[in-house]
Each structure stands twice: as structure tokens, then as C-alpha cells.
Amino acid sequence: MKKLPSIEELRKICQPEDIDQTPLARTYRSISVYITKLFLYTPITPNQITLLGALIYIAGAALFISGSPLMIIIGGLVVRAAILLDYVDGNVARYRGTSSPEGTFLDKLSDCVPQIFLFIFLSFGVYQNYPHILVFAIGCIAVMSIVLKTLTGLCQDSTLLKMVLKQGLQVSGILIRHQTSKGMDSCSSSFLRYPYHTVDLFIVAAVIDLVLERGFPSITMPFSIVLAMLTLYGVFSLVSAIVGVTRIVRAGGLSQHEP
């Protein structure tokens, strides 16, 4: 078995100081380096790790179909565990020196697309508990908003990727993420800026629903906290998507007038 650097040496190689260092990110990076070391003993590529994380994410989100607060909590924790691999793939790529704009774009794609499945499964689960046309409409709007928000973000990423490849720039994945995230969700708070934070909101909402369901069984709730959160996040995503589309249209108009 090949000898690898110590954990502390891996941190210095895989986690440079200019990388995202929010409190939550630091926690995940601290844990991810141990998993990274295990993957470095294998021939698995960063892109394969990215796809594995996306599949686990979707599998966890599939538990939302039941609509049960307990299953939403369990599914949310599975999704959160899958998100660890989103840090591991970057660590492996930096250690092996295989970072690329294409890999970064795939990483962004794996962040956004599973989220669409999460909202589809969640909307279906909520509708099972509250089979009302209004709830159905809320679910449809939330899913369409997430799809539109995802497409606008990927469109911005794709444009930047083409620019990088065309100009032959040696741009790191960190810079690409920084540039694209600013345009994608500039109207949001830092907590809601990244797709993988979404599940935290629904875990908390499901915990509240579960406490109300188990602690006050005699009270019939006309709606759930999960449904309220789905509604709020759907509205947020719709506004964010409209802002993104506006920016893309404006950017296209400016590029047409360039000399």
C-alpha cells in the first residue's frame, strides 16, 4: 500500500487558506480530509466521487416521498452525509493535481441537479399528507422555480467555462466557484446561497413537525412547518431565478454592443 502524507500535511495540500472557510465549511473540511485519505488509496477519480455523492444525495431525498417528518429527517441526514463527498472530490483533485474547469462545472452540476429531485420528492410527500389543489400548486411552483434557478446558474457557469477555455486561462476551481456564485444568488443570504444548505431548512422544519405530531397528537395542524418552508423557499427560488435571468439577458445585451 502506498504511503500517503499525514492528515495535517493533507490539510495543507488539499485545503488552501483561500478556500471557503465559513464555520460549516470548516467543519465539513475537517471531517472530509479523513475520508479523502481513504479515497487516495484507490484509483477512483474526483469526477467519480462527485457522481457517487450525487447518487447518495438523490437516494436520501427519495425518502421524502413518504411525507413523514421522521423519514424527512433521516433522508435529510443521508443527504448531509452525501454532501461530505462534495468536499472530498475537491480534496482528491487538488492532491492529484487534476483540477480543471470541466471538473468544477461537473461539481456544480452535481450540486444543483440532485436538488431538483429533492424538491420533486418533497413536494410529492407533502401533497400526500395534504391532498389539496393549493398544496399541489405550491409544489409545482417550488419545483419549477428550482429548475429555473438551476438552469440560470448553470447557464452562467457554462458561459464562464467557455470563456476560460477560449482564452486558455489557468483558472482554479475556487475562482470559478467564486465568480459564478456571485451572479447566481446575489440577492440571497450566505446561508441560502449554496444548494446543499437547502436540506438543513427542511430537517429543522421536520423536527418541529415531529415534535408537534408526537407531543400534541390531539391538535390537528391545518398545515405543516415543512409545507410552510417549501412555500417560502419556492418563492425565494423564483425571485432568485428571475434575478438570474435578468442578469443573463442584460449580459447578452452588453456583449452584443461590444466593439
Q: Spans of 5+ residues with little confidence (pLDDT < 50)?
A: 168-192
Largest sheet: none
Q: If helices are DSSP runs of H or I spanning 4 or more residues, what is the number of helices? A: 9
CATH architecture level-2 label: Up-down Bundle
Molecular shape? globular
| CATH hierarchy class name | Mainly Alpha
Rg over alpha carbons = 20 Å
Q: What proportion of the residues is helical, as a percent range?
A: over 70%
Detailed description of the structure:
This protein is an all-alpha fold and 259 residues long. The chain has a single domain (7-253), classed as Up-down Bundle (Four Helix Bundle (Hemerythrin (Met), subunit A)), CATH 1.20.120. Helices cover 76% and strands 0% of the residues. The chain has helices at residues 7-14, 23-40, 46-62, 69-96, 101-129, 133-167, 173-184, 198-215, 225-256. The longest helix has 35 residues, at 133-167.
